TrEMBL record:
It comes from the Bacteria. It comes from Flavobacterium hydrophilum. This is DUF262 domain-containing protein. Residues 17-229 form the GmrSD restriction endonucleases N-terminal domain.
């Protein structure tokens, strides 16, 4: 005959069922309420999101096991405290919001308590006994802390602090849910449930249980995703391998895990790296497949970029599943090779600390651009069977040129082109098209492929032009690359083509001038420390469209003298703005041609001012000490009559004191 212990299989209960049947007392051996900590936001929001989805969709959710034992007529959870505390806060919130917190409900909720933590116990009691009015735009935390019954010392209790933080998130997520309280306690639905196991019924002591591996531990986002994903794959019959060793379920726990453990382990865990990789893959597939509207895609891309843990199985279809498997298999075979290939040309702001896999899967604050570059690497190795170092580097260079472009402002501020989910979406789609020719990108571009993407259109046209020049005469490649690699141009050399008056007809290309302009540019503008006072003085001698006023690219009023403020180029990146400005780039074109035969100092010394050239400007050119020692900024002010200028002591001086007048 079976014993009572062997018959016992536990029960399936809701939180309200358990609290109705007995007191819940958090024992002294339990840690603080960790789920509400600031650092646990992702775990907390994932759990609350799962509860919210269950309530909104009227679909049951099982929260796994709650283990414990009964002591002095109270159930003391040994595993499940975190979930029980969050459920307690959700039930209090629902009863308060829906005006259901009557005496009967209060008496039931008061049965949730702490064994020895007096402040935590008293806070829970006070929270239930006192009235709190919840409004959509007000903070529950602030209302509670500002209440007369709240002791300021409670703010130092980590459990109370964590509870208040969780209530904020509950308020943000659940306020709009109608009849929340009734949905939580409805007997017919029992939406949110868990397995309740009383250890006394199965003959386990507390000491023995504590040594066990806790089943009730909250799963990591990756573990949750993996379990749901494997179910989806089975249900949809996506994995048709008859050999179990080749199935997704086997490899995700076998060879792929070994791979990630070898290369992407951090704090003895690979879960974050896995979830980041999967999230990045689905971002890529959403941008390529384009099943949703751009606005919806952008919203999803932004959320996934900010928090990879929100990736969900519903975001996948069979195609994206197959792509994920293909990428994981690719890494298993070629990751060591990919990581060993060196990219020796500069990647400017996007240079990884190690490589792009580490950057995206391990490092903090990964950028959209780094994900694009990772995708470009994956596509090359996915499409090319026999690796060619030259072709690979040329492919990555073209991608580098595209993603390195940005919007440059007059003040030198420069924002990257891939800085939003919308631009990420567009560039990924563009790279997916270009990847068809990644095995020989210059040959592919020289054939003028029909690119559907409208992203970075101007740069793509330049890449086609450069490809044609290289295919026509391979010796041009080194010159083009050396210009692309300068920090000022960053892959975009249209200014150089402007200097050459190049109209796109290859037969008209002047190779001699190209080499001369390249050398003049790199020697005088190639690096940041090329911006000096000799360059400023030389530019003052340059006339473009009969004006000697390169500084007009920037303007502001100086009311002190009723004049105009100008800049003699304050930052290196301002040069990028000028050379890409149709109105002012001619100054630098004229200067570069002079620099083919002269040095900056020769241009300055040889300059003979025309008769209408202001004396103050001649002095700035010829008297080096004015800019070298007397000027405290790179700003000047010019009165309306242009009879003189002032060397300004700062960008925004409030008075004339300290500003030097030059006549």
């Amino acid at each position: 005959m079976a014993t009572e212990q062997t018959k016992y299989k536990g029960e399936i209960l809701t939180f309200f069922d358990l609290l109705n049947s007995q007191k819940i007392e958090i024992p002294i051996i339990q840690r603080d309420y960790a789920q509400g900590r600031l650092a646990e936001k992702k775990i907390r929001l994932n759990f609350l999101s799962a509860l919210l989805n269950s309530i909104k969709s009227d679909e049951q959710i099982m929260l796994d096991f709650i283990y414990g034992s009964s002591t002095n007529e109270a159930f003391q959870p040994l595993d499940g405290q975190q979930r029980l505390t969050t459920l307690f806060l959700l039930h209090w919130y629902a009863a308060t919001k829906d005006s259901e917190l009557d005496e009967e409900v209060k008496n039931i909720l008061l049965k949730f308590t702490y064994e020895t933590r007096i402040s935590s116990r008293e806070f829970c009691n006070a929270l239930i006994r006192n009235k709190v009015v919840l409004n959509k735009d007000s903070s529950p935390r602030e209302k509670i802390i500002d209440s007369s019954w709240f002791f300021l010392s409670w703010k130092n209790d980590p459990t109370i602090d964590a509870m208040l933080r969780t209530l904020e998130d509950i308020h943000d997520m659940f306020f709009e849910v109608e009849n929340l309280w009734q949905k939580l306690i409805a007997k017919d639905d029992n939406l949110i449930r868990f397995y309740y196991v009383n250890l006394e019924h199965i003959g386990l002591t507390d000491d023995l249980y504590i040594k066990m591996n806790a089943r009730g531990k909250l799963l990591t986002p990756f573990e949750n995703f993996k379990a749901s994903f494997e179910k989806l794959i089975r249900d949809e019959k996506w994995d048709t391998n008859s050999d179990f060793s080749l199935t997704f379920a086997n490899k995700i726990d076998g060879v792929w895990t070994d791979l990630f453990w070898k290369y992407f382990r951090k704090n003895n865990s690979i879960d974050n790296a896995f979830i980041r990789f999967i999230s990045t893959i689905i971002m890529i597939r959403k941008s390529i497949d384009r099943k949703e509207k751009l606005e919806d895609r952008a919203t999803l891309l932004s959320k996934l970029h900010d928090d990879p843990n929100i990736v969900a199985v519903k975001m996948f279809n069979e195609s994206s599943f197959e792509y994920l498997v293909e990428c994981l298999d690719l890494l298993q075979i070629k990751l060591a090779e990919i990581k060993n290939v060196q990219i020796l040309f500069p990647l400017f702001r996007h240079q990884p600390k190690n490589d792009f896999f580490n950057e995206v899967l391990i490092e903090d604050n990964v950028s959209y651009t780094q994900k694009v570059l990772l995708y470009a690497q994956i596509e090359y190795f996915r499409r090319v069977n026999i690796f060619d170092d030259t072709m690979y580097v040329e492919w990555m260079r073209v991608v580098r040129n595209i993603v390195s472009q940005g919007d440059i402002e007059k003040n030198g501020k420069r924002t990257d082109i891939v800085r939003s989910p919308q631009t990420f979406d567009g560039i990924i789609y563009l790279i997916s098209e270009l990847a068809q020719g990644c095995s020989n990108i210059y040959q592919y571009l020289s054939n003028s492929p029909n690119i559907k993407s409208t992203s970075a259109k101007e740069q793509i046209e330049e890449e086609k032009l450069k490809a044609n020049l290289i295919i026509d005469k391979p010796s041009r490649k080194e010159i083009i690359h050396s210009l692309e690699d300068t920090d000022l141009l960053r892959g975009k050399i249209s200014f150089i083509f402007y200097c050459l008056d190049f109209n796109g007809i290859i037969s008209n290309f002047n190779d001699e001038q190209f080499l001369q302009i390249r050398d003049a540019f790199i020697n005088n503008l190639g690096v940041e420390n090329n911006l000096n006072n000799n360059l400023r003085r030389a530019l003052l001698t340059i006339s473009f469209e009969e004006n000697f006023e390169f500084y007009n690219y920037w303007w502001s009023s100086w009311n002190v003298i009723d004049g105009e403020k100008r800049k003699l180029i304050n930052s290196y990146r301002e040069i990028e703005y000028i050379i890409n400005s149709e109105e002012y780039r001619g100054y630098f074109k004229t200067l570069l041609f002079k620099l083919i035969d002269k040095q900056l100092v020769d241009i300055i010394n040889d300059f003979i001012p025309p008769s209408n050239f202001p004396n103050w400007k001649t002095r700035l050119v010829k008297e080096s000490q004015l800019l070298d020692t007397m000027s405290l900024s790179n700003y000047i002010a010019i009165p309306q009559d242009k009879s003189c200028c002032y060397l300004l002591k700062s960008p925004r001086p409030r008075d004339i004191t300290g500003c030097i007048k030059i006549e």
